[in-house]
Specification:
Helices cover 47% and strands 14% of the residues. It is of the alpha+beta class.
Length: 136
């Protein structure tokens, strides 16, 4: 899984996640920005599934991961006019909802000890391994 290019893996994984009935793009997601560092909503039609695939990959690599850590990872640079730019976190509702959908699909689960957060399940590992194997 670590040997394949992330962009190709995320694209292929997003196509697989589209087939799962537990992962659905909400109606309101076409109109919202993903954080304060962006000026417009995402222009891609299937951006929800791309973000879901990227989050699943991040949980596999960095596991147990919570919403705040993912907000930092998916955040960006906030431009402040003539003042220097600063990093800002991404929106939390989108990440939280994607985590809940991935959990209901059985790809991740919550953990309490030794660190709180979400970890990948064997079903999620199998999916990622299958997608990575197809890219070799």
């Amino acid at each position: 899984m670590r040997d394949v290019p992330p962009q190709k893996l995320i694209l292929k994984l997003s196509e697989e996640l589209k087939k799962n009935e537990n992962i659905k793009q909400p109606e309101w997601s076409r109109f919202v920005k993903t954080g304060v560092s962006t000026e417009r909503p995402p222009s891609q039609e299937d951006w929800w599934f791309l973000r879901s695939a990227a989050i699943l990959r991040k949980i596999y690599l960095n596991g147990p991961v919570g919403t705040q850590k993912l907000r930092t990872v998916f955040g960006g640079r906030r431009r402040r006019g003539h003042k220097p730019a600063h990093h800002r976190k991404a929106g939390g509702k989108i990440i939280r909802l994607i985590l809940q959908q991935l959990e209901s699909a059985g790809y991740i689960k919550k953990t309490e000890k030794p660190r709180k957060g979400r970890i990948i399940t064997p079903k999620g590992q199998k999916l990622l391994s299958k997608m990575a194997k197809g890219l070799r």
